[in-house]
Every structure is written in structure tokens, then in C-alpha cells.
Amino acid sequence: MSTTSMTSMATSAVQVVARYGYVPFMLIGLNGAGIAVAAAGAPKYWLMVILVVAIATAFLVERVIPYDPEWNHDRADSTRDRIHVAVNETLILGSVAAIPLLAAIVPAPQLWPYSWPFVAQVLAAILVADFGITVVHLASHKIGVLWRFHAVHHSITRFYGLNGLMKHPLHQTAEMAAGVAPLILIGLPVNVASVLALAVAIQLLLQHSNADYRIGPAKYVLALNEGHRFHHLKWAGIGDVNFGLFTLVWDHLLRTYSYDPARRFDSTQLGMAAKPDYPSGYLRQMIYPFTRDGGCTLTPTATAATNGTETSTPDPSEKYRC
Fold it and tell me: Which domain holds residue 166?
């Protein structure tokens, strides 16, 4: 067997391992490591080490099995995205650190199920947070003032891991508050909150990943990249689907679930059709939602005749008048 053939076989084997092993490694392996660290009362910096491993793994796998090789190339956005990650991850960690103070200000009735196994407590926290975050996410596509800030996230034109934390800090705060506040009110322990914060970061890496991984039928339940790409379609209305962070359960119940296995995505389908020139610099993205041009009004833009009767039929490429 030639050296070229052996190299090709080795490359194919690595790709198969990455395609089917990446998600279990991240969801079970790294989250499991976080649960073990927190349950043992180890120093919190170990959770940061796990997060660094998650980010490094995400970047590596995106290059081994890219969905779109072009999305791995910088578009003068890498530095901006790293700033988004640093700011928003700091906010998440700060909110975890503030839990004892919040608990002192707002005494909880201590309804938290401390007697449950630690992994069950974490899973319960994830499910509750998933509902709150999904509700705010859905509302952000319906309510103008929320959309102003959420639009920062939808300005992306390539899909890769760091996009998950490319959010306006005010919108990030609103989502996390909706997800975590109910938990704090029933006595959320700091160690469970710490694992939840890690799980959110890992989930965002997977959800926006440029890796062409496979998860089988789980793609209909877990809010990962195969389903989330439909959420980033640039046409209003068409992209108003698949809002879940951890699961798609709420989308199925709210009838906002969408999936077409035949659809192939590229950069021409991402972003916002109504705002193709949305600011790309970090500081401008922070300021833009406060400006007059930073919002959109939902209006039908076209009509179509049906059996002789005019009915409103919005053009998806112009649904938002900005």
C-alpha cells in the first residue's frame, strides 16, 4: 500500500471519528468533566480549563470536517468575535459569582431539590433555563425593542463556533436573566450554576459550529447546528424558527420548528436581507441599536390575488422595512 493511500485512509478515519464523536465528546465528555469538578468542590478555574479545551476542540474539528471550508476563513470579523466572547463570557461568569449576593437580597424559599443526584440537578437547571431563554429568544423576533439588540447576532454571514456568543451584552443579559432568575428564586446552588454556565458555552459552540457532524435522529430534539442554521436564514419569517438553546422541544410545541434535509446553506443565505450593510465593528454594533436606524418595523410589502381576492403576501426578502 502506498504512502498516499495510507495517509488518505488515516485522514478518512480521523474524519469519521470527528463526525460521530465530536458531539458526544462535547456534550457528555466535557459537560461530564464539569459536573465532576463542581460536584467534587474543586476550584472553579478548572471549569475555565474545560471551556478552553472545548473552544480548541471546536476550532480543530471545524477544520477536519468543515461544513463550508470558506466559513473557516477570517472576514475581518475574528477579532470582533473574540471581543464578543470575552465580554459575554465574563458577564456569564459574573452572574454566577453574584448568585450568593442575589440570594441574600431575595431570600429563596429553598425549594431546590438538594437531595437529587448532582447530575439530575444540573439537567433540571438546563431544562428550566432552556425554556426561559427560548421564550426571550422568540420574543426578540416579535418585539421591536428586543430585536434591535438581537439583530447583532443575526448580522453574521458565516457560521462557526464563536458566533454563538456574538451578542449584544444587553440582549445576552436579558436571555440569561429569563433562564436563570426562576432558578435563583428557588435556591439555585452556585456549583450547579457554574456547570450551567459551562453547558451554555459548550452548547453555543456546537449550535453554531462549522463542523459537518452527525447526531442521527437526535437532530430533531437537540438544538444543534443542523437545525439552528435554519434560524439564521436572512429572510424575516423564514428565519423565525428553531429558537431553542439546548432543545427543540419548545419549538415543536410552539410550532416554530423547521427542518429540510435537502437544504444546503452558504453565506448568501445568512445575515439580514433588510440590512445587508449592518455594522460589522464591535463598538458600532454596541451603539447601533440605540440609533434611529437600529430597528425595523414589520410590514407586509406585497399583495397576491387568490380567487379574485387580494390577500397580503409579504415578500420574505423585504419583510422588515428599516
Answer: 3-321
Number of domains in the chain: 1
> Can you tell me the distance from the alpha carbon of 260 to that of 214, in angstroms, rounded to the nearest whole number?
15
pLDDT (tens digit per residue) in 1-33: 676 676 677 788 999 999 999 999 999 999 999
Closest CA to 291 of 302, 281, 279, 301: 279
| Predicted confidence (pLDDT) per residue in 163-212, tens digit | 999 999 999 999 999 999 999 989 999 999 999 999 999 999 999 999 99
Does the reported pTM lie above 0.85?
yes
Q: Give the helix ranges, DSSP H, for 65-168.
A: 78-97, 99-105, 118-140, 144-150
Neighbouring C-alpha atoms within 13 Å toward the C-beta of 314 = 14
Question: Is 259 in contact with 238 (CB distance < 8 Å)?
Answer: no
Query: What does the DSSP 8-state code read for residue 236?
Result: T
> Averaged over 78-94, what is the pLDDT?
94
Measured between alpha carbons, how far is residue 29 from residues 42, 63, 131, 246, 313 in Å?
A: 17, 21, 24, 16, 48
Cα separation values, 30 from 55, 122, 210, Å: 11, 14, 19
Burial (CB count <10 Å: 0-12, 13-18, 19+), residue 21? middle
Indicate if the pLDDT at residue 101 is higher than 80.
no
Q: What three-state secondary structure class fits 247? A: strand
- Whether residue 226 contacts residue 262, with contact meaning beta carbons closer than 8 Å, is answered with no
What three-state secondary structure class fits 298? strand
- What type of residue is 165? L
The x, y and z cell numbers of residue 93, run together, are 461568569
The CB density around residue 95, as the number of other CB atoms within 10 Å, is: 18
Q: 197 vs 62, 170, 194, 276, CA distance in Å?
A: 23, 17, 5, 33
